[in-house]
Amino acid sequence: MTLDFPVADDTASNPTVGQAAPAAKPASTAALMPDAQTVTAVHHWTDRLFSFRVTRPASLRFRSGEFVMIGLPDDNGKPILRAYSIASPNWDEELEFYSIKVPDGPLTSRLQHIREGDQIILRPKPVGTLVLDALLPGKRLWFLATGTGIAPFASLMRDPETFERYEQVIMMHTCREAAELDYGRELVANLHGDELLTEVFGADFDKRLIYYPTTTREATARMGRITDNLTSGKVFADLGLPAMNPAEDRAMVCGSLAFNVDVKAVLEGFGLREGANSDPKEFVVEKAFVGDGI
């Protein structure tokens, strides 16, 4: 997920694969960058989405769900930076990021061409509101995301502490087309097959982590916007769960500005209150996220 910060260009957005764009600077040049980290893997999920992993600074400590500033130098050597949610959990030895490609994006037009061995800039000062400490204790935790907004939840779903605090975690993820859900679908499938998680949290772990993907453009088995599926009660009926209530349910929201505003209104309609790191309540929203229009 990419976030909206004035120091950056457009990171959760990236130009399309195959589009002419300047490539990332070779590692030999990048080695001169301050806060440089080495790319260890890159995976292009669609012509609009890709994920990548980089080395983790030895001194970096973060809470699952937080974000950091990453970037590349422009042609004049000036850093182009953007805020990206860390998609890997806090125990991982590397850092993972998930991004879209927006045509002519100052950063993403370069970032989409990185390869294993290249280097990027990573400012090791994590911040963010999508952390467990910003919520009051509860029974169920809902992750509500569109597009690359799933990134911070990819971190939290892989953090055992999430399941120590909540009996159930429901990941609602909505994209326009089915292929855009592949990143989240594969991640959840791997978690359901994780022997350690099953050993620690029981054989019914697949019932403790529920994945509810929907599309809004391509016809699939499940369709509809998150707001509509919540307000209509469809998601509760599909999953056999009661409607959200402030006594049992907690939520985290990450998507475009319009999505965040709409979902906030829905959650408040269920009686949930917005919290923060300094004032935990029933739900939190990542206000810095920009969405697909960057």
UniProtKB/TrEMBL annotation:
GO molecular function, one term: nucleotide binding
UniProt domain FAD-binding FR-type: residue ranges: 32-133
PROSITE patterns cross-referenced by the UniProt entry: FAD_FR (PS51384)
Region annotation (Disordered) ranges: 1-21
Cofactors required: FAD
Keywords (A to Z) from UniProt: FAD, Flavoprotein, NADP, Nucleotide-binding, Oxidoreductase
Catalytic activity: 2 reduced [2Fe-2S]-[ferredoxin] + NADP(+) + H(+) = 2 oxidized [2Fe-2S]-[ferredoxin] + NADPH
EC assignment: 1.18.1.2
EC category name: oxidoreductase
Source superkingdom: Bacteria
NADP is among the record's keywords: yes
GO biological process entries: cellular response to oxidative stress; heme catabolic process
Family note: Belongs to the ferredoxin--NADP reductase type 1 family.
Protein name listed in UniProt: ferredoxin--NADP(+) reductase
Provenance organism: Paracoccus sanguinis
Phylogenetic placement of the source organism: Bacteria, Pseudomonadati, Pseudomonadota, Alphaproteobacteria, Rhodobacterales
